[in-house]
Design brief:
Order of helices and strands: EEEEH
Bound molecules: zinc ion
Distance between the termini: 44 Å
Radius of gyration: 15 Å
Structural class: mainly beta
Low-confidence stretches: none
Length: 66
């Protein structure tokens, strides 16, 4: 697979939950998925739709509740 040049940008004021480094979190899109990554350690999280739904406190699995 060809290496795609990813447009990463630092998240101002963000703190890594793993190594506690400040201003080390970069945000970028990977295959349409919002991804956050720490440049100081190997912390990495992808904001999949499931996760977003969980964070929103919902139980969204393609079912609409009346
Ligand atoms: Zn880190």
């Amino acid at each position: 697979m060809a290496k795609v040049r990813l447009k990463k940008r630092f998240v101002a004021g963000a703190k890594c939950p793993k190594c506690k480094a400040s201003d080390s979190i970069v945000l970028f899109m990977e295959q349409g998925i919002e991804t956050v990554e720490c440049v100081e350690c190997d912390y990495r999280e992808q904001q999949t739709e499931d996760k977003v739904a969980q964070k929103a406190g919902g139980d969204v699995i393609g079912v609409f509740k009346p």
